[in-house]
């Protein structure tokens, strides 16, 4: 079982089960994690699934595509470890991953 | 009634969002989500792109896994049409004579394809593209077809055209208007759209009207235009817009004006009934107070959230900024705000390239931004429009002017 931990901006933790192949955005949304919206359905079109990857995990993820980078560039509350969670697929290796969520997506 | 109930008619993106948002907001009553399609709620946007190209399977378009409905105690009814609403007794009648009582009813009945009123439109291999079932049939035919004719150069038609070219079909798109996306985007964006589709190998015919579809043995073989041309076709896609599904609302005497009329809280003339999504017509400050009916995912989900908030006692006027996207081959088109034909245009980037934005101003105010392969412009435009800072057309047109600085320095 792959556990993914989403931490809302107010500190609320959601430890949820990830399914290989699904994106982190879907994983959050399917488990009603507040603070992840993902309106475009994972199309890298809305930047409402922004999250901060725990520094210990950041380098273990595949790098941002150019498209993700430009979308993120326009997002609010950007940090060094920002990612769009729709662009990251759940894999066995991501068991224990921690994602913190921004104060707002828009 | 044992406990308070919200009934939602229509299990598309808007209907599902109301149900999900109600649970997110800790609504404790019953939530009944009624859909007439046989499937659990799914996303429509991939149907004209990733799904047709085989990049997305039919199981991957679902909006939520099956377990979501049980764990969130959302009663999902699929494959049943709601046929009557009794506003006095607050009951919805379904086609199998079952009844759902409600305290609040949300109409999210969406829209249906506008039919093409010409002979031959009922031939085999003539498709619409709105539902998953339609996409399944279309995808199967695409695998064996050679010549596709698309009637209507709107978003759906052009998304299909790009997908069909990728699959190696010959594709002709025709439209009665003089440019693609004529009702939706600026002339500059239409021109780029035409040019880039031609680069993909799509043949475009404008100011061209269909006389009839030709067939042999019940299947389509061609399209005859009013000016006498015959285009070979073993596959035809019709994308000439939609008709809002207002019939149920009309039969129970709700006010209709293009769509179901709602106030700024998305409430119909009956305080126990709201309407959202493609079917709802609301007055938008962004359209000069004009009544608008928007067909987009953004509109569906934001209106769903707005109504769920009101139901749990957090009423707010609906003021979300409209935005939209369309992927057509190498074209990633994004738009935010609402434009009108009287807008002044400022171009950022080279309109002869496949990467530029059009900033549209009404009475000196920025009201809409269209972007082609410029997601950063789009994202910034959403912030500019949401913050209402003043933007000058000259600033928008000057690629060296940092529009972001307007936000940082704003009051």
Task: Describe the protein.
The complex is a heterodimer of chains A (106) and B (411). With 106 residues, chain A is α+β, with helices and mostly antiparallel strands. Chain A has a domain at 1-52 and 84-99: Beta-grasp domain (Ubiquitin-like (UB roll)). Helix content of chain A is 18%, strand content 22%. The radius of gyration of chain A is 12 Å and the shape is globular. Chain B has 3 domains: 5-112 and 243-311, FAD/NAD(P)-binding domain; 115-240, 3-Layer(bba) Sandwich (FAD/NAD(P)-binding domain); 339-408, 2-Layer Sandwich (Enolase-like, domain 1). Chain B is globular, with a radius of gyration of 22 Å. The mean pLDDT of chain B is 95. The chains are: A alpha+beta (106), B alpha/beta (411).
Provide a short characterization of the protein structure.
The complex is a heterodimer of chains A (106) and B (411). Chain A has three helices and five strands; from the N terminus they run ββαβααββ.
Sequence-ordered SSE layout with sheet pairings:
The complex is a heterodimer of chains A (106) and B (411).
Chain A: E1 2-7, E2 13-18, H1 24-30, E3 50-53, H2 55-58, H3 66-73, E4 82-84, E5 97-100
Chain B: E1 5-9, H1 13-24, E2 30-34, H2 66-71, E3 74-77, E4 82-86, E5 91-94, E6 99-101, E7 104-107, E8 111-113, E9 126-127, H3 132-142, E10 147-151, H4 155-166, E11 170-174, H5 187-199, E12 203-205, E13 210-216, E14 219-225, E15 230-232, E16 235-238, E17 242-244, H6 247-251, E18 256-257, E19 259-261, E20 273-275, E21 280-284, E22 290-292, H7 297-311, E23 323-328, E24 331-337, E25 344-350, E26 355-362, E27 365-372, H8 375-387, H9 393-397, H10 404-408
Parallel strand pairs in B: 1-2, 1-7, 2-3, 7-20, 9-16, 10-11, 10-16, 11-12, 19-21
Antiparallel strand pairs in B: 4-5, 5-6, 8-17, 13-14, 14-15, 18-19, 21-22, 23-24, 24-27, 25-26, 26-27
Helix pairs in contact in B: 1-7
